[in-house]
Amino acid sequence: MARVDTRRFADEAWSTLRLALPLITGQLAAVGMSAVDAVMAGHYSADVLGAVAVGVSLWSLAVVTAIGLMMALPPSVAQLVGAGRRAEIGPLFRQALWLALSMGLLLFAAVHWLAPLVVRALHVDPRLWPQVTAFLHAVSFGAPAIACYFALRGVSEGMGHTRPTMYFGLLGLVLLVPL
């Protein structure tokens, strides 16, 4: 059986934790924003809460699509950093931004114009249709920006800079709470 080098293990664990804690904090901030959204919607009425819940569920598909599209970016950037080929990160980032912007515009169009059709096809309570559609129309304008954010995030995380994810998540939460 192999002997575990305790000191090396502790060093590796600490390095991993330094990278992971900001990511975990950023994700918890995103969950906090969702909770604040639910509380705010619930203060208006049960119908608004229901409309926001349905709208967020549908909007999440667009967000997950943008996230999935950018999933290859952090390991690609990390590989370039590890190989000492930092000069290639810029062109990769530009390509990722073009891809993100294109996908963001496509997601905007899909969410904005298909929202009424999807809401009806899912047999959502007809009383909620106008509110769900209005919610989706409003958030659809953020699709290009959020897709580009995930490109920025992918490059940052690939370079080992995980704190910006935390800072943006906490900033979003702090700005949302007073609303």
TrEMBL record:
Keywords: Membrane, Transmembrane, Transmembrane helix, Transport. GO terms for molecular function: antiporter activity; xenobiotic transmembrane transporter activity. The keyword Membrane applies. InterPro entries: MATE_fam (IPR002528), MATE_MdtK (IPR050222). The keyword Transport applies. The chain crosses the membrane at residues 48-75, 96-114, 134-152. One of its GO terms (cellular component) is plasma membrane. It holds the Pfam family MatE. This is Multi antimicrobial extrusion protein MatE. It comes from mine drainage metagenome. The lineage of its organism: unclassified sequences, metagenomes, ecological metagenomes.
